[in-house]
Design goal:
The complex is a heterotetramer, with 1 copy of chain A (about 325 residues), 2 copies of chain B (about 325 residues) and 1 copy of chain D (about 500 residues). Chain B has helices spanning about 1-5, 10-25, 35-60, 70-85, 90-115, 120-140, 145-155, 160-180, 180-190, 195-200, 205-230, 240-250, 265-280, 290-310; strands at about 155, 160. Chain B has about 325 residues and is mainly alpha-helical. A two-stranded antiparallel ribbon of chain B has the order 1-2. In chain B, α2 (about 10-25) runs parallel beside α13 (about 265-280), α5 packs antiparallel against α11 (about 205-230) and α12 crosses α13. The longest helix of chain B is centred in the C-terminal third of the chain and has 27 residues, at about 205-230. Chain B is globular and about 60 Å long. By secondary structure, chain D is of the alpha/beta class. Chain D starts with a strand and ends with a helix. The chains are: A alpha/beta (about 325), B mainly alpha (about 325), D alpha/beta (about 500). Chains in contact: A-B, A-C, B-C, B-D, C-D. At the B-C interface, α6, α12 and α14 of B face α6, α12 and α14 of C. Bound molecules: adenosine-5'-triphosphate (2 copies) and magnesium ion (2 copies). One adenosine-5'-triphosphate (ATP) binds near residues 39, 85, 393, 395 and 397 of chain D. One magnesium ion binds near residues 291 and 419 of chain D.
Amino acid sequence: ELPPKDDSLKTRDAYTDDADTVITNEEYVMITTAVTMPMYVNHDQAAFIRWGGKMGVKVSILGPAEWDVPAQINTIEEVIGTRPTGLLINGTDPAIAQVINKAVSAGIPTVVYDSDIPGSNRHAFLGTDWYEIGKMQGEEIVRLLEGRGKIAYMGILGLNNMESGFRGLLDVLKRYPDIDVVGKFDDKANVEEAARIASDVISAHPDIRGFCGFDSNSGPGIALAVREAGKAGNIKITTVDWEPEHLQLVKDGVIHMLAGQKRELFTWYGAQFLYDMVHHTNKMAANDAKAGITSIPLEINTGLLKITKENVDEFIK
Amino acid sequence: MLKKILEDRVYSLLLLLVVVGIMASILFPNTYPTFDNFRQILLNLSVDTIVAVGMMVLLISGAFDLSVGSVVAFAGCLTAYLMHFYQLPVPIAIAAGIASSMFIGWLNGFLIAYHGINPMIQTLAMMGIVRGMALMVSGAGIQNLPYWFNAIGQSKLLGIQMPVWYMLFTVLIFSFLVNKTVFFRRFYYIGGNELAADLSGIRVKRMKVIGFLLASTLAGIAGILLSSRLGAALPTMGRGLELRVITAAILGGASLSGGYGKIPGALLGALFMGMISNIMVLGRISGYWQEIILGVILIATLWLDKFLQKKYAPIT
Amino acid sequence: MLKKILEDRVYSLLLLLVVVGIMASILFPNTYPTFDNFRQILLNLSVDTIVAVGMMVLLISGAFDLSVGSVVAFAGCLTAYLMHFYQLPVPIAIAAGIASSMFIGWLNGFLIAYHGINPMIQTLAMMGIVRGMALMVSGAGIQNLPYWFNAIGQSKLLGIQMPVWYMLFTVLIFSFLVNKTVFFRRFYYIGGNELAADLSGIRVKRMKVIGFLLASTLAGIAGILLSSRLGAALPTMGRGLELRVITAAILGGASLSGGYGKIPGALLGALFMGMISNIMVLGRISGYWQEIILGVILIATLWLDKFLQKKYAPIT
Amino acid sequence: MENLKCNNISKSFPGVHALRDVDLTILPGEIHSICGENGAGKSTLMNILAGNLQPDSGEVLIDGRAVKIESPQMAFTFNIAIVYQHLSLVDSLSVAENIFANRQPANRFGFIEHHKLHEDTRQLLDSLGLIAIRPDTMVFRLSPAEKQMIEIAKALSRKPAVLILDEPTASLSHKETQLLFTILRTLKESKVAILYISHRLDEIFALSDRISILKDGRSQGTFMLEELSREKLIATMVGRPLNVLKDFSHSRPDVLLEVSELNGAKFKNISFKLHQGEIVGLAGLIGAGRAEIARALIGVDERKSGTIMLNGVSVYFDHPRDSIERGISYVPEERERLGLFPEMSVRDNIVSGDLGIAEERGFYSVPKATRVAEKSKNILRIATPTVDQKVMNLSGGNQQKVVLAKWLLTNPKILIVDEPTHGIDIGAKFEIYEILRSLAAEGKSILIISSDLPELLGLCDRIIVIREGEVAGDLPRAVATEEKVMSLAAH
Ligand SMILES: Nc1ncnc2c1ncn2[C@@H]1O[C@H](COP(=O)(O)OP(=O)(O)OP(=O)(O)O)[C@@H](O)[C@H]1O
Ligand SMILES: Nc1ncnc2c1ncn2[C@@H]1O[C@H](COP(=O)(O)OP(=O)(O)OP(=O)(O)O)[C@@H](O)[C@H]1O
Ligand SMILES: [Mg+2]
Ligand SMILES: [Mg+2]
């Protein structure tokens, strides 16, 4: 038995309902990958759990411990079988489109956050475009270096969102001939690795002037190397994420800019959308599903936040 | 009876699986013991198991291969690459993907057996090389692959997705071969005592190369299968798969020092881990707790196994 | 002479390092052979090396421990946790951190030696458990550690940061002990032939426990050192460290089957890998090419080693 | 120590009663031999005294005090030292560290004094006439015979009050054996109690004061040397008449194997012929290079130069597989290291020489393998409850029988055997001689490497003496005598 030729034809109204269905044991499940990654735990998951508490509904967080997209897909597949009220899925890679569609056609309200999944029938997406994160870092580093000097950047190679971040960065730098990109490095989401690479780069290019980091371990790693080379402040660092560690480093003037995402909003409003969808908070038609529409926003860009020495104190709790 | 079961890991593990299954069915009566759920569990471990079969053969001969995870990624990405950027017909692209994984396996085996390079470092280095090549061909991953390619992994038979059937097929074939053919039994002798095997007229070096070739080939097939199932090839596929697979095989009765193990053990080992993680999903256990609990369960299992053995089947 | 060098990996590796060093100095005359560069290389491998010393002892006795990476994270996080949330004085917090890692090591050894649990699975499971616990205690990671704690890893001596000195100290001490004391020599007997060791009156099980205890303790110390150097404790510290360290030790002359290896080998192995990746950066090799080339170099090195051995120091 | 007593010791393993109510008394200053067939229980009894095994019942008394010897360490504290039948050396360590395992001379801080370690070792080695071996040589570089001597040195270095030797001479040649005897006699003078196990009756009669005999784990009593005649001893331990060797030859004129100008790592210019139905012996001292010659013949080791003609056609083997296919099989020395798959079953070991024989309709069949194994088990009287038994659980001699069975099943045209009767009891020895003879009768030829001269003299049509890797002489049976061979072999 062969798979359907083209599943994008399938309308997303598999989610059928009558206004007066009572929702039994309501549960919202969030499925990500690298579920133990501090950035996820302290922003996405924290907000999601707060939301659950406020609304008094059950919320669960699932997913593999390591960055493993196939495993995330497996988890989603297994969860679909348990028919949760709504699914909140971290858009880690376009490859999860299929399983999202499976969830949708199984009639489960499904919201994607962080990165959008093209070609999926998700009911809604909230997040930021990683390309923008790259661009933002690019523009800031260019500003900091007055448009000239050597820079290097690092992250986890092969991850869809990061690769588009890299693209964003390079597209900016392209426009500045005096900027010399000395290398793209894989820090394997590992502080020691990031530190090692950074200090190797520093000794390879004593005149290095800037670093850009793309995963939450890049920042601390680069910062460590720069500090130990006694060049804190002289070498400009921009990176992603705003863990306490990162904020501290900005405060100390080692890191110069953090391109932060409003990850709390991803999951808080994502969950809220799911809730409103199943509870018909806003009805457009007599029966939205029958009408083939969803009663929640299709796409939301939560925008980025730019943390620098000026405003860092506002973030340190 | 009990003695017999306890002496053979395959049986004791089977027993354990049944017990766990029953317990889970009591805990989650309407989500666990369903056809859908089991279909899903099997589907999710099919790729691991196919790799584990090859690893089992290697472990029997006293070796192991850390590069299989990267091979999964590379074979998948290369195949996708050829189809996507060179519009190669599906079968040819697949052939190329498998051929590449065969070459990698052959190279591992050749350098280890004929040039005495330390297996651990050889395969670890190869792991890095091949992962790098996967990144090279696929960048951030390759989507919308040809329909017929996706059909391989996404079509169903009797309501069960194909990968499950491929897995069962692989396990059956190799159980048979390893039990019933002189050729494959040689691996047990090599694992048992290399010097003696050589003097007994077994071409140890050649067999070792074949062992690595086999493991890598199965990894390649698994990789192609995975990307066909995902409908996309990611350079990050199979990260950490090598350890998972070796663990499954050892759970299934293999030993790093060689000479022991049976093919079905690979499946049962993987199945055990699959069931545990499935149960944790149903139980909504996640975050660091899932790592902690999985670890504790693994240790407890082996401890129980040893304990019962000491008690009922002492191997003086 | 050449024969002697080739027979002992420590010397051959040393020779290799010198050759590589000279080549690099010719290629990059004004960036490579600088005090700063070497200081940084050493600093960046200090943590790995301290762990590698313990791993070397284990490997000599024919065992290895996959949980060290997680122990690095846990010991660091626990120490930071106690200082930050309970305002425990630095020495006490450190003592607690080390004690916890000792307990983990003891548990590994005890279950493996006295309950016959498969070492690979035991330590792999422990790796998950301990990583989970690290996440549990540290959450997002812990900053603003006491000045005196940070001083441990950040202060300098003769312009070189302390971790380097601790590393050299560890290597020296253990080289001495392993060479010179009856107690530590026992690990060679156990690794070489467990039965024979037992017949020679060595309490094999007890020694095994001590081996794991030692490896884990050094990992704990390394972890505390790392977080003091970072001025923060992150639960992600030491990811994948176990494989790096085992590779270094094997490069340094150890063998998974035990009986071989010398402590300085651990340092040289780590140093070799550190130098290579440093040189690659100098050579502007980046992205996935790093992985590919590092792998190729690893294999090439071992191949060369074997080749020269066959040629000039055949084992009759 | 006044005396060491065993009171009705019993020990059984799954399926086997290794020992049943065995009594034994050993006095200081006596050499006490233990005789018995393979699997009679000798090693088991010794292992109990050495603290490796615990008796199921019965007790061990030292000077009348009952003691529990729970571990090797404990045996040491009672001054009991043992030379094991299977080697207990660590290949990856030096001779010195093997001899002084875990008790290297150390200063009061516990730091090893390497120079002292090597001096002590040097002395010990010299006293054993092992001038050639350096204290810092790695053990894996030694030949089995040399390893055996190190094993003995290891036991002697403990200056024991009770010295147990379990078949110490099995892989030694005449020279070393004599040397060992002189050492044992001097120890005896200094009131050491010596327990001696051997399957070589001449040694028993040359050495012992008293002899205890075991049969199927039961004690057959202890006798003064004078009380026992050779026949009586054999009768009590074997319990069935032996078919003694009649010396006639099956040798035929036509040449089967011709080796000319063979050169290798440890030997040079080796030339000899092997006729159909001929049994030829290779005699020589340890390290003479006999094993290497054999290894070169079957293609394990490189051969530098020289030709090997099989049935008149020159052959080159680069792997034992080839030689086996061409009908040349080599039974290696060192059964643990080169001959056996210790953790595998007797069945798997027996069929390992030619897995094809276990095939049925093209597929490997366990029942078939079992049938084959059972057959060999009965022919060679291998003492094991079932062929499923792990071979490492068999007694030394029975392990050797398994090795032989394995190679006989490859039915070769030419059989090269290295120490074929290593650790095998006389009963079985004669059976093996018979088997070799019958093979010869079928027109197959046999090249036998052995350190047991009487064996060679009794069995061979011709004896080729190897000295330092060269042919020193080629003696037909008529002229071959112990003296001639020894004088040719000695440097
Ligand atoms: N660990 C064991 N497990 C099972 N059976 C054993 C074990 N050790 C010895 N046996 C059996 O006990 C019996 C006596 O063995 P033992 O080694 O004492 O014989 P032996 O007199 O030394 O023979 P040999 O002269 O061949 O060395 C044999 O049948 C042997 O198979
Ligand atoms: N390269 C090798 N690999 C494995 N075993 C070897 C190798 N070379 C030699 N041996 C073994 O080491 C022993 C040393 O051979 P040696 O020259 O002493 O033969 P020998 O004259 O038969 O002396 P012995 O009386 O010890 O048998 C032989 O038993 C042989 O089996
Ligand atoms: Mg014996
Ligand atoms: Mg020999």
